[in-house]
Amino acid sequence: MLSVSGSFPASLADMENYGRREPEVSRYPEFIVRRARTADVPKIKRLIDIYAPKILLEKNLVTLYESVQEFWVAEREDDIISCGALHVLWSDLGEVRTVAVDPAHKGCGSGRAVVSQLIETARDLGLQRVFVLTFEVKFFSQLGFTEIDGTPVTSEVFTEMRRSYDTGVAEFLDLSYVKPNTLGNTRMLREL
After folding, report:
1. Domains recognised in the chain with CATH numbers
2. 48 and 58 in contact (C-beta within 8 Å)?
3. Could you give the CA distance from residue 49 to residue 56 in angstroms, rounded to a whole number?
């Protein structure tokens, strides 16, 4: 016989909210940092487009909708002022990608807050290292990233990762067909 303990919803109305958590939000004096929602995607795209294609890879809307769960945003008065994503590359490794800050809000700490949240998310997922490919070496150095050479994975993992269709994974692996995308970028890693 099955025995169940604990509280369960008493009605259908209660059932609809059963198990739901309050959304994760970090509050700062000038903005909040929260998980991105699908309604944020057009605003995220506008922010990315400021920097694409010279600093960031261009992202089309469908790609952003497909990966919206990876994004965190800094929001100020209903405007998205910063964004960034954490993409899991392997069991112990993630990549911080697509970090963008509205030029009108540079220096307010929103980019740092978003990346800090991405690092915390990586820890929550059990990742041990986070990679970034960037022009913003000073910014990421201040957040604990260090410059690296090569690809910090075993040959077995490298072979398995080559099967990915994700351009970011190819950039991480430093594959020749993505070299034009990575010229001038610095490879950085942070141990968690």
Report:
1. 23-191 (3.40.630.30)
2. yes
3. 8
Q: What percent of the chain stands above pLDDT 70? A: 85
Mean of pLDDT values over 10-27 = 63
Higher model confidence: residue 124 or residue 24? 124
DSSP code of residue 177: G
Chain-centroid distance of CA 123 in Å reads 13
Please tell me the distance from the alpha carbon of residue 142 to that of residue 145, in angstroms, as a whole number: 7
Residue the block writes with tokens 């995308």 = 181
DSSP letters, 107-139, are TSSHHHHHHHHHHHHHHHTT--EEEEEES-HHH
SS3 6: coil
- Asked if pLDDT for residue 16 goes beyond 80, the answer is no
Q: CA nearest 172: which of 67, 57, 69?
A: 57
Cis link prior to 103 (omega < 30° from 0)? no
Residue 63's pLDDT is: 94
What's the CA gap between 119 and 94, in Å, rounded?
9
